[in-house]
Amino acid sequence: MKKRLASTDMAVEFIKSKHRSDDGVVRYYDVSVDKKLSDKIGKPCGRYSTLETSAVISGRREEYGRVSKALSDCISEYCNGCNKVLCVGLGNPDLTADALGDRVFKRLNVTRQYDEDRFLCALAPNVLGVTGIESFDIIAAVADRVRPDVIIVVDALTAAATGRIASAFQVTDSGITPGSGVENHRRRLDRQSLGCRVVSVGVPLVVYSSTIARDFCGGDCDDCHDMIVTPKDVDILVEDCAKIIADAVNIAFGTNVRAGAV
After folding, report:
1. Which of 107, 131, 156, 238 has the CB geometry, 3.0–4.6 Å to 246, for a possible disulfide?
2. Long-range contacts for 39-43 (Cβ within 8 Å, ≥24 apart)?
């Protein structure tokens, strides 16, 4: 029987990324996916950056400010020249492992009410099963009215290695397909579909049980592939990752008051 490929949203798990920096807290990797590589690994063309850190999983909150600053610098590089920013928190706020986007949304310091030429505004569309409306339709409608230079989309991801749970922040300009990590694909959010730059930010918070079987038992578990597994302290991990991402976005767009506060 042919083995199934590990399910993951992380480009770094498919290809060898270029190591850019390591300050002892955050390791930074970067890679560009062209058409040939895209066809090979099944990931959209674009640039993918990964910031790896053990600060969250180890609970070293005194290092969160450094992680936020590194992530902020990365986001700023992707959003160079953008003054009007719409940040979208994807996911189901009632499902802890999928609530990252909503938790980030609640921590953003929005400014569009003060200045319509240079601003950060935010949206959390929830999920189709709760609202009856596709996330894409809500985001597209708001973007058409707000007309942002860039849409930053935040969502929880799936990893193909347990060691990356809450330990890797991925930033990419290739967009994102909501629900793709758990094989519940919705309409893709990218420049082509929304008409403006789309930058996605995510953290892996779940893995398949087959991944755990491979990592810890050295074998495969095809029969349990559809089981999604998350750490027992996922509520704490989600909150801490959300604080780091929200601080990073607030710093990047000049609206942060207490960078790295937890």
Report:
1. 107
2. 41/11, 41/14, 41/15, 43/11, 43/14, 43/174
| pLDDT tens track for 9-47 | 887 777 767 778 899 999 999 988 888 888 887 788 999
Quick one: which of 136, 97, 118 has its CA closest to 227? 97
Q: Please classify residue 36 by burial: count the beta carbons closer than 10 Å to its beta carbon, then call 0-12 exposed, 13-18 middle and 19+ buried.
A: exposed
Residue-by-residue DSSP string for 1-55: -PPPPPP-S-GGGTSPPEEEEE-SS-EEEEEEE-HHHHHHHT--SEEEEEEE-ST
pLDDT above 60: residue 208: yes
DSSP 207-221: EEHHHHHHHHHSS--
- Which H or E element spans position 136? helix 135-146
Which amino acid is residue 137, in one-letter code?
A: D
End-to-end CA, the chain: 49
Output the CA–CA distances (angstroms, integers) from residue 142 to 85, 87, 88, 103, 137, in the order listed: 12, 11, 10, 20, 9
At residue 172, the 3 state secondary structure works out as: strand
Interior/surface letters 76-114, b for 16+ CB within 10 angstroms, e for the rest? eebbeebebbbbbbbbbbeebbbbbbbbbbebbbbbbee
pTM (predicted TM-score): 0.88
The tens digit of pLDDT for each residue in 74-130 reads 999 999 999 999 999 999 999 999 999 999 999 999 999 999 999 999 999 999 989
CA distance 170 to 179: 16
